[in-house]
């Protein structure tokens, strides 16, 4: 396993097959700074080829997930001027965030978002690119950008992918804030927890399920799901059949079949695999 990068805005802890990433700027409700964006991107880049890490659990310190973009970075960008041939500082700031969100969305790892307190703007977008999202009782979700005179430029496409155009329109155009129960009904999160103990149990269950699934097969499945709707169905199914044949002939396919016949857990279900 590769060593984890040093981060100033994130706390990193490896536990079994999961990397726990805690956004650690509680004094500003974990607002997303450019440094945090860069550090999240570095973490996901570094773990991409590490088969020992199969899940990434993202949560916030101090009772909040992430309250959106950092006002100081916005003020700093306002004071900058684009040089000749350079992009507008606000464009660079916004686009860097979008690139990180896309990277998390397409990560081969199972991304588990544990949402509590403020889940706004960029934090809302981060929740919408998770594979499993769990909401604590205090979670409040929203896209407040239009109430601030700006637009949810980088997160809007991912919100539409998550909950569909009609619900995304209502949330974005009215700048609504919704609770955990409504977020679950809309499909922003998959489950809610009424207490800290229940939240921990749901996280543990999700990680245990990740452990039962073969890492390469899981990564290939996630990549396949992301291709749906972006290419012709017949071509997609041709490609998927090729990947299926490769998988079943590969090490994981052989081990999974043998384990099933021998009525034992597959090798990857062990603690350190």
UniProtKB/TrEMBL annotation:
<dbReference type="Pfam" id="PF00378">
    <property type="entry name" value="ECH_1"/>
</dbReference>
<comment type="similarity">
    <text>Belongs to the enoyl-CoA hydratase/isomerase family.</text>
</comment>
<dbReference type="InterPro" id="IPR051683">
    <property type="entry name" value="Enoyl-CoA_Hydratase/Isomerase"/>
</dbReference>
<dbReference type="InterPro" id="IPR029045">
    <property type="entry name" value="ClpP/crotonase-like_dom_sf"/>
</dbReference>
<dbReference type="GO" id="GO:0003824">
    <property type="term" value="F:catalytic activity"/>
</dbReference>
<dbReference type="GO" id="GO:0008300">
    <property type="term" value="P:isoprenoid catabolic process"/>
</dbReference>
<dbReference type="InterPro" id="IPR001753">
    <property type="entry name" value="Enoyl-CoA_hydra/iso"/>
</dbReference>
<protein>
    <submittedName>
        <fullName>Isohexenylglutaconyl-CoA hydratase</fullName>
    </submittedName>
</protein>
<dbReference type="InterPro" id="IPR014748">
    <property type="entry name" value="Enoyl-CoA_hydra_C"/>
</dbReference>
């Amino acid at each position: 396993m590769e060593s984890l990068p040093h981060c100033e805005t994130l706390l990193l802890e490896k536990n079994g097959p999961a990397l726990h990433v805690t956004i650690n700027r509680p004094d500003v409700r974990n607002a997303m700074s450019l440094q945090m964006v860069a550090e999240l991107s570095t973490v996901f880049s570094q773990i991409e080829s590490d088969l020992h890490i199969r899940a990434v659990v993202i949560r916030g310190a101090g009772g909040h997930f992430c309250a959106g973009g950092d006002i100081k970075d916005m003020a700093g960008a306002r004071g900058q001027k684009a040089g000749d041939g350079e992009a507008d500082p606000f464009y660079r700031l916004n686009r860097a965030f979008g690139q990180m969100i896309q990277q998390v969305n397409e990560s081969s790892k199972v991304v588990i978002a544990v949402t509590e307190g403020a889940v706004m703007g960029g934090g809302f977008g981060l929740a919408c690119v998770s594979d499993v999202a769990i909401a604590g009782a205090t979670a409040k979700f929203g896209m407040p950008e239009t109430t601030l005179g700006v637009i949810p430029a980088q997160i809007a496409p991912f919100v539409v992918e998550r909950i569909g155009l009609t619900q995304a329109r209502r949330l974005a155009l009215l700048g609504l804030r919704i609770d955990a129960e409504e977020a679950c009904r809309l499909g922003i999160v998959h489950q809610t927890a009424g207490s800290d103990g229940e939240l921990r149990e749901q996280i543990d269950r999700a990680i245990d399920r990740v452990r039962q699934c073969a890492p390469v097969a899981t990564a290939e499945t996630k990549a396949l799901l992301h291709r749906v709707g972006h290419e012709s169905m017949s071509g997609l199914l041709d490609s998927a059949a090729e990947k299926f044949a490769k998988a079943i002939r590969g090490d994981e396919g052989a081990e999974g079949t043998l384990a099933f016949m021998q009525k034992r857990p597959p090798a990857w279900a062990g603690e350190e695999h």
